[in-house]
Every structure is written in structure tokens, then in C-alpha cells.
């Protein structure tokens, strides 16, 4: 008994269960992948334009695309064009006109300065008209461009937009845009109550 006991304990079964299903599983997966590839190619073919293959746009992209093409007539600048000719933040820092730049308090009027002398109202309309829905009579009437061509206000303009949201978007996208080799400085126009604000600021200090 004494000799048999350890022998009995020492016998341990080590088993390897190799199933014949593995290759089949792999095959199924590869078949699935092939099918996915087929779906992808058909999708890509559907999305192809002029020989280029575009990935299926996600919902966010489609929203942006819709926004990009959202009733902005071709007579106005595109967002791509704005971005292409706009200074980066680092480049802006090199220009003295952007020193101590403050966008100001949001309102529906924007103030543009550092305009080249050859800038005309039509140039400003080409840029800022994209923020106005010209099918709406109210928005059309709200859109107002006042370009100063003489005196000490020369090279500056005030532009009235339909609402604060449109003005904020215009400021974000057009500030630093290089027009006739000069970058525009775009800010919110000051409201009619700057004195009251400065007094409040002094009280707080």
C-alpha cells in the first residue's frame, strides 16, 4: 500500500483537445472578410467620383458637408478658400495688427480693420455674404456693409449680420484672412455702452 499510493497520486492526465473545427472557423472568418471586402468595394464603387474612391462619409461628415453646401451660393467664398488664405495663430503673432487682439463682446455687428486700399464693398460682400441667407428678406435687410474709404477710419469696415451666431462664425472663419496681401483683423463691433462697462471694471478692481 505504501508504495502504490504515491504512484497513484503521481499519475496525472495531461490532455490536449485539438478540435478539427479550428480550420473551419478560420475558413468561415476568411469567408466573412472576403464578403466584407466585396461589400466595401461595392460601397466604394457607389461613392466613387471621377475615378477617386471616397470612404463612406460618417454622420458628422455629412452634417459638415451639408453645412458647407447649405444654401451658400457660388458667388460667395467657400470655407475651403477662407481656410486656405487665412493666417495661422503663429503667423498672426508676427503681425503688429494682431498684438493684444481681443474679439470683443459678441453681437450681430462685426468690425474689420487693416483692409488694403483697393478693397471694395463687393469684396467684403463676397466674403461675408456667405453668412447671410439671401432667400430671407429679413436677413437680406440685416446685412449691411459700411466701408470707410476716407479720413482716419480708412481701411476699416462695419458689417451688420443677421444674428450673433452668424457674426461669431464670420469672426472665427475670416479673422486673419489675407485679402489683397493684407490680413483682415475681424472683431465684434463695440456696443453703444463702453463707458458703463469701463466704470464697472474700475469698481471691481
Automatic annotation (TrEMBL):
Superkingdom classification of source: Eukaryota
Keywords: Nucleus, Repeat, RNA-binding
Any single Gene Ontology cellular-component annotation: U12-type spliceosomal complex
Keyword Repeat belongs to the record: yes
GO biological process: mRNA splicing, via spliceosome
UniProt key word Nucleus: yes
PROSITE patterns: RRM
Cross-referenced CDD domains: RRM2_RBM40_like
Name of one Pfam family that matches: RRM_1
Entry-linked InterPro entries: Nucleotide-bd_a/b_plait_sf, RBD_domain_sf, RBM41/RNPC3, RRM_dom
UniProt subcellular location: Nucleus
GO molecular function per UniProt: pre-mRNA intronic binding; U12 snRNA binding
Domain RRM, first and last residues per copy: 108-191
Annotated SUPFAM superfamilies: RNA-binding domain, RBD (SSF54928)
The protein's name in its UniProt record: RNA-binding region-containing protein 3
Amino acid at each position: 500500500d505504501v508504495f502504490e499510493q504515491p504512484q497513484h497520486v503521481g499519475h496525472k492526465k495531461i490532455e490536449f483537445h485539438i478540435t478539427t473545427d479550428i480550420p473551419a472557423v478560420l475558413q468561415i472568418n476568411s469567408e466573412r472578410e472576403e464578403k466584407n471586402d466585396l461589400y466595401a468595394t461595392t460601397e466604394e464603387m457607389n461613392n466613387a467620383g471621377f475615378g477617386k474612391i471616397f470612404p463612406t462619409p460618417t454622420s458628422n461628415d455629412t452634417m459638415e458637408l451639408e453645412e458647407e453646401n447649405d444654401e451658400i451660393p457660388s458667388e460667395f467664398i467657400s470655407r475651403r478658400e477662407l481656410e486656405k488664405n487665412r493666417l495661422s495663430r503663429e503667423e498672426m503673432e508676427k503681425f503688429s495688427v494682431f498684438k493684444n487682439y481681443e474679439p470683443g463682446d459678441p453681437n450681430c455687428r462685426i468690425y474689420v480693420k487693416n483692409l488694403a486700399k483697393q478693397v471694395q464693398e463687393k469684396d467684403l460682400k463676397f466674403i461675408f455674404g456667405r453668412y447671410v441667407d439671401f432667400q430671407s428678406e429679413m436677413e437680406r435687410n440685416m446685412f449691411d456693409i459700411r466701408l470707410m474709404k476716407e479720413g482716419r477710419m480708412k481701411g476699416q469696415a462695419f458689417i451688420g449680420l443677421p444674428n450673433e451666431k452668424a457674426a461669431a462664425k464670420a469672426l472665427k472663419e475670416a479673422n486673419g484672412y489675407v485679402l489683397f496681401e493684407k490680413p483682415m483683423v475681424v472683431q465684434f463691433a463695440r456696443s453703444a455702452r463702453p463707458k458703463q462697462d469701463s466704470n464697472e471694471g474700475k469698481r471691481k478692481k
